[in-house]
Amino acid sequence: MTDDLAGWLDWLRAHPELQTLLASATLLLAAWLSNWIVKRILVRGLYHLLRHVRDTQLQDFGVIKRLSNIVPALVLSLGVGTVPGLPDAAVTVVRNVCGGFIVLTVALALGAVLDIVNLLYQRRSDAHLHPIKGYLQVVKIVLYAIATILIIATLIDRSPLILLSGLGAMAAVLMLIFQDTLLSLVASVQITSNDLIRVGDWVEMPQLNADGDVIDIALHTVKVQNWDKTITSIPTKRFISDSFKNWRGMQESGGRRIKRSLYLDQQSVHFLDAEERKRLYRFSLLEDYLVNKRQEIDAWNAKLAERGQEPVNTRRVTNIGTFRAYVERYLRSHPGIHQGMTLIVRQLSPTADGLPLEIYCFTNTVAWTQYEAIQSDIFDHLLAILPEFGLRVFQHPSGADMREWRQSLEPHDAPALHRSAGHSVEMTSQS
Questions:
Q1: Domain of 359?
Q2: Can you tell me where the transmembrane regions are (predicted)?
C-alpha cells in the first residue's frame, strides 16, 4: 500500500495543475469544515448555555455568530500559502480579501455590541430621561469609517496612513456629505443636555403635522406617534431650529387646564327683583353669597339718604353677577376640579356673538378621556341651569328660529306682514 501511495504521489507531481487544483479544493473543504464545526457545535453550544444564563433577546444581535465567520477566513489566509503552484499574485489577493473580510466581520460584531449596550441601557428606569442611542450611532459611524479605511488599505495592500493622509484634502467633501449627521449630532447633544424631549413626552409641532407621543429618539430622526396612530419622523435638528410644544409640564403637574367661554345674550342681563332673589335662595351654593351681597348693598344704599329712594342711584344685584358667583362656587365644590390651581370665572369684552363668560380652571387628572368627561359635565350643567337666572345663550338665528317667529305672529299681524313682503317685491321689481 505504501508503494501505491508513493506511485500516486509521483503521478501527482507529474501533473502540477491537478496538484494545485486538488490542494485548493482541500483548503476550501477545510475552511468549510471549520465553519461548520464552529457554527454547528461551538456556537450552538454557547447559545444553549446563554439560554439558561441570560434572556434570549440578546442572542438576536448575532455577535458570536458574526465572530465565528473569522475562523474560515483565517484558515484560507494561512493555508493559501501552502497550495503548490499557486501564483504569488493569487496568494496576495486571497490574503488581502480574507483580511478585509475579517475587518468587516469585526466591525459588524462591534456594531452589534453597541446595539446590546443600548438595549441594556434602555432597561434602566431612567433611560428615557437621557437616551444614548444617538451617541451610539455616532460611534458606529466612526467605527464603520475606520473599518472602511482598513478594508481599502488591506485590499490594495497599502498602509492605512497613506489613505489617512489624503483625508485632509477631502475634508470639505466629507463635511458636505455628513452635514446632516453633524447637525443632528449637535442637536442631539443640546436636546439631551437641556432635557428638551424624552421618550414618552407628548409633543406638538403643527408645522409638521405632528401631535402625539415621542416613541424613539435617534441621531437623525425623532419618531412621534400621532393620536391617529400614524408615525411622523422629524429631523432631530428641527427640535432646535423650530418651535414646538411639550406637554410634559402639564402631565407632571397633575392638572389639565379648562379654558372655555359661555356666550350669553346681552339682552337677557338685568337686575334681580324681589321675586327672583327669593327664588334663587333655593340654591344652597348661593345662600351665603346672597345674604352677604344683600348686607353689602343695603349698607351702601343707606349712605345715599334721600337720593337712595331712586332705583337708578342704588346698587342692585344682577342676574349675571349672581350666575358668575354660582359658577365659581359650583367649581369649588366639583370633585373633578383641582382646588390647588388657578380657578377664575370672569367676563371678557363683549362681542357681536354675545358676552363671553370664561371658565378658567384645572382638572385633577391629565387623562384625556377623563378630562373631556369632566369638562363636558361642567358645561352640560351650566347650560341647563342658565334659565334659572333669566339668562340665555347667544346664537345666530337659524331657519327654525324664523319659523317659530312667523308662527308666533298674531292673525291680525299676518296681512301687514304680507303687505310688507309685497311692497318689498314691488320695490325690487321697479328698481
A1: 256-395
A2: 20-38, 67-87, 93-117, 138-156, 162-178
Q: What residues contact 256, with CB distance under 8 A and at least 6 apart? A: 250, 362, 363, 365, 366, 371
Question: How far apart, in whole angstroms, are the C-alpha atoms of residue 112 and residue 65?
Answer: 11
Decide if 181 is inside a domain.
no
Residue 404 lies inside a defined structural domain of this protein: no
- How far apart CA 396 and CA 107 sit, in angstroms, is 71
How open is the CA angle 304-307-308, to the nearest 5 degrees?
Answer: 60
Hey, what's the cell of 143?
Answer: 467605527
Q: Supply 375's cell numbers.
A: 369638562
Do 198 and 222 contact (CB within 8 A), yes or no?
A: no
Helix, strand or coil, per DSSP, at residue 31: helix
Same domain, residue pair 148 and 18: yes
Q: How many angstroms from the chain centroid is the CA of residue 16?
A: 69
Question: Both 113 and 243 in a single domain?
Answer: no
pLDDT tens profile 197-222: 988 899 999 999 999 999 998 888 89
Give the tens place of pLDDT for each residue, 186-198.
888 788 767 889 8
What does the DSSP assignment read for 54-94?
Answer: S-GGGGGG-HHHHHHTHHHHHHHHHHGGGSTT--HHHHHHH
Closest CA to 214 of 186, 182, 185, 191: 191
